[in-house]
Amino acid sequence: MDTIDLKNKYKESCDLKLTDGVYDYYVLPNNTTADPESRTIRFSITQEAERLIAISISCTGDTNQLQSFLSKKHHGSVWSCSEKKLQKLTAELIINREIVIVTRSSSEQGHGTFAGEDEIAPEYPGIPFNLGGNSKITIGLIDSETGLPIKNVKLKLHNDGKFKEMLTGNDGKVTLERIKKNSVTDVRCNVMNEFGAHIDNTYSYVRDGYRPVSADAMTKKLWMSDQKKKNSRRSHSYIAFIREVQPKKGDTLDSIATQNGITFKELCLFNWRENNKKKIAELMARDLGCKGISGDPANHPFDGTENLVFVPKPLNENYLSADKTHTFQIKKLGYPMLGGPVVLLVVDEEGNPLKEIECKLLMPDGSEALRKTDEDGNLKIYKTYSGRVKIEIVNYDSSEYSEAVT
């Protein structure tokens, strides 16, 4: 039989879990015997095991569990291993071990769920590598501002009632091969079902279509490389439709979540990776500019001057034809990690601060937001976007007071 209840028998004893997108492989310790009715294999040469490990990395993008497995067996740190060395060392350790094979659609919904738990099975079974055709489809992801390719983004490609999870390569592309010529492919990603997805590792879908690489692309590329070094152990990213919601007076985080079909908890986990209400209140003050939060932060009323809240929606790009390259433009959003907001002093002709004056912000994507200067004439702008923001003073006699901020 293909599936067994792993919850009690193997959940604690499994040394390492791998996947090929169709099946999950539970590598057992040397002293463990699998259930007689389970489907098992043993690898006798390292090349066989290395191939499975390479496929598993390509499906999940996660090498942390391999590193942990090696660290335990080698009694030391192996975090400096190259990916090739990591594959080889891991393969050597699992040779001749018993490996339980379980159909992925029966064993997992998201990450870390074992058969027998109260979870809904995925909508589609895992995709076989050969779909019976000679055609292919390529999906490319590029930065909407620079045109540079975006790598290590997880996509789920659905075709003919099946799916395969893939990570974009260095060229920002994934290719699904051996599909039928007249078939259509759907690209999907629901970050609400992805364990660990949040604003810092999720790109926002902007539009379809290719754009050339911009003149300032290398500056952006160097900045992105610097950010990667700061978080070098992040395995992969996600993609979603992300609404940049400007809170209105009287709105609350709970009402914004409800209006967008998610829960307050989901909204906070996506924006801050946090569900502790005391910490959420602190983060609302830091990132949104909320003042005087008391009681439940879910019901704290906004006054309309706060910063943007990010609301994720599932990505569903459907009916993509075969034998073509389909390009999606995406962008990075997020709260400022360092340095806080940009603060501008708004003054009149004589240099006097304009207190509590309403200003209109024209965002790089064409959207608008309203902000008010504080009692000292300061206007705070959180750089949760890249590009130029034009600021116009609303209902003021002079039209000379506008400024562009990069």
What does this structure look like?
The protein has 406 residues and is an alpha+beta fold. It folds into 4 domains: 6-107, no CATH class; 135-237 and 313-332, Sandwich (Immunoglobulin-like); 247-307, no CATH class; 342-405, Sandwich (Immunoglobulin-like). Helices cover 22% and strands 28% of the residues. The chain contains 9 helices and 20 strands. The protein has a 6-stranded mixed β-sheet with strand order 8-5-14-10-11-12, covered by helices on one side. Helix 6 (217-230) links the parallel strand 10 and strand 11. Helix 2 packs across helix 4 and helix 3 crosses helix 4 (83-94). It is elongated. Mean pLDDT is 77; it is low at 105-128, 222-234 and 399-406.
State the secondary-structure class.
alpha+beta
Strand content: 25-35%
Q: What is the CATH fold-level name of the largest domain?
A: Immunoglobulin-like
**Strand line-up across the major sheet:** 8-5-14-10-11-12
Radius of gyration: 25 Å
Which architecture of the largest domain would the CATH scheme give at its second level?
Sandwich
**Main CATH class of the largest domain:** Mainly Beta
- Sheet with the most strands, sense and barrel status: 6 strands, mixed
- End-to-end separation: 61 Å
